[in-house]
Amino acid sequence: MTALTHKRILLKLSGEALQGQGEGGIDFDTVGAFCGEVKQIRELGVEVGLVVGGGNIFRGAEGLNSGLDKPTGDYMGMLATLINALALQSGLESCGVESRVLSAIAVRPVAEPYIRRRAVRHLEKGRVVIFGAGTGNPFFTTDTAAALRASEIGAEMLFKATKVDGIYDSDPVSNPDAKRYDELGYTEVLSKNLGVMDATAISLCRENQLPILVFDSTVPGNIVKALHGETIGTLVRGG
What we know:
The protein is of the alpha/beta class. Helices cover 35% and strands 18% of the residues.
């Protein structure tokens, strides 16, 4: 077995990834399968941070057509991420992985407040740290929260989980001739408007030289393969 490429990572998971084949909500079989993969990563000795979206429950943009102002809608979305974070914590601890939820919004009965040093200490003790409530501010996506938290905790790579096997020059679902990139630079992702993450998140990763691996989370074992140096998905770094 090859040596591990990274010792501390941050996984970014969409809220939709937790709904399985359903049209919303949380599928706990899907949560359990994902948590089983995280357990494998932890057993390798890799420290893991997690950021999860809330789109399976509520998207801030959905409220704009219903009369909600954007800040209120975004705060509702942040609370949705906390529901998902608690589901992941339950799934992890059910399979024997100690974890902590740290929230950017104070909800002390269910989660610890986010403090960078506390997060790092949990990681050093072998706990999976789940970062909830985004950045705690409206107008920022959970992609940006993932880039921010990864930078703050000193993660060596941001793993962006998707339903496709990397970044394409067009939508591979609607265009069978779409070309998949093996590697891209940050500036190239921005200039081509490839849309895999929002511009703020990409810019933050570029500023901190934080590599991003965009991969298919529906294929079991992909993260472990990447940690052993196998080529999967699309790597974004440099430039």
